[in-house]
Structure prediction request, 224 residues.
Amino acid sequence: GENVEQHPSTLSVQEGDSAVIKCTYSDSASNYFPWYKQELGKGPQLIIDIRSNVGEKKDQRIAVTLNKTAKHFSLHITETQPEDSAVYFCATSSNTGKLIFGQGTTLQVKP
Amino acid sequence: NAGVTQTPKFQVLKTGQSMTLQCAQDMNHNSMYWYRQDPGMGLRLIYYSASEGTTDKGEVPNGYNVSRLNKREFSLRLESAAPSQTSVYFCASGRRGNNQPQHFGDGTRLSIL
Prediction:
């Protein structure tokens, strides 16, 4: 079945450093790749998404890159701040419209 | 504009009890979803409703039922709760069609003893 693998499961960086989270997927029909940020006690919040006709997308300090040939995509956060500390989830969707989520990455940004 | 509202926020049940989790959205979205979140497993789709009047099973539907009451509301029912259903439940909504972002509520934390 469809599967999304997310790495690493935990990531600790110093404030100001960059953080990278990677996801690989199995369904070659996947064409939508969102990233969600979840803070403690809250629901996931969409932070950036990319569609399969685009290789890279950037929004201020956040960027996502997509390699459809290799079936992987990554979230890049530059100049990390303590408020970036949260759990991050990648997800994929094909034409079914249903999202398949990765297992999550707990990011800790140390001041 | 509250987005997606879930009630209750917390609930403790005994094994065998029944319960309905409520979800409402005010974004005029056609599609609504129920997920459960367990440690280390991300979010798994229980049921979804692509539009008013339709519901379909997701990845883990066993032990659950849903009702799309109207365009705004989508409820999840546990008929006979089991300890394995202890989880955090999230409702989400999105526009009609594929590749649309989903917007999540803040969850219901459910413990079954």
User: Anything to note?
Assistant: Chain B touches chain A at residues 4, 31, 33, 40-45, 48, 50, 58, 90, 92, 97-107 (CB under 8 Å). The first strand of chain B starts at residue 4 and ends at 7. The two ends of chain B are 36 Å apart (CA to CA). The mean pLDDT of chain B is 94.
